[in-house]
Amino acid sequence: MDENPVASRDYPINSVEFNKAFPDDTACQRYLEKLRWPDGFICPKCHKRAKPWERLRGLKICQLCGHETSVTAGTIFSGTRKPLQYWFLAAWEITNQKYGASALGVQRALGLKSYETAWAWMHKFRRAMVRPDRDRLSGEVEIDETYVGGEESGVRGRGTNKKARVVIGCELKPSG
Predict the structure, then answer these.
(1) Do 163 and 172 form a contact (C-beta atoms < 8 A)?
(2) Each residue of 130-165: pLDDT tens digit?
(3) CA 127 – CA 123 distance, rounded (Å)
(4) In angstroms, rounded to a whole number, what is the distance separating the alpha carbons of residues 31 and 4?
(5) Reported pTM
(6) In the chain, where are the structural domains located?
(7) 49 backbone dihedrals φ, ψ, rounded to 5°
(8) How far apart are CA 50 and CA 109, in angstroms?
(9) What is each CA distance from 147 to 32, 52, 97, 100, 159, in whole angstroms?
(10) Which residues are 70's β-sheet partners?
(11) Cα distance between residue 140 and residue 173, in whole Å
(12) Model pLDDT for residues 64-82, shown as the tens digit of each residue
């Protein structure tokens, strides 16, 4: 893994690399630290660069103002009681499923006892993957639909038992 990882670019491409990069919670914390503070810790309160005091469970205390923070503060991992390694594995499962991941699949992959935990995590990841200030389609918009899943025996026309419905919207602009 790169010494200075870049979000959305530097992530393992297969399970062997994943297991090597994130063997424990400490490795996960170090990865997040490098993403959050690539040039070293900067206090979120006083905005000054200083080597923080480190406490248990990754808590950091600014030596200049005494503010306490963690690498997970303000993220979907904030306040979790589960190991970061579980969260990273859940992210791996979600992003590496060809047809998307389900809460039940994440529960099985992580060996979670509670379906509700897996369901809550899936929703946290989904919310994090949507850019709230994304541009909306406007003006003249064309919409079409299709079904994905190949031929089905015993089903005619637009009927389906197994296919996924996909809806696509496109904004028409004078430039093309």
Answers:
(1) no
(2) 877 878 888 889 999 887 777 778 777 767 777 778
(3) 6
(4) 9
(5) 0.70
(6) 15-38+74-128, 141-171
(7) -90, 125
(8) 40
(9) 39, 54, 19, 16, 10
(10) 59
(11) 8
(12) 999 999 999 999 999 898 9
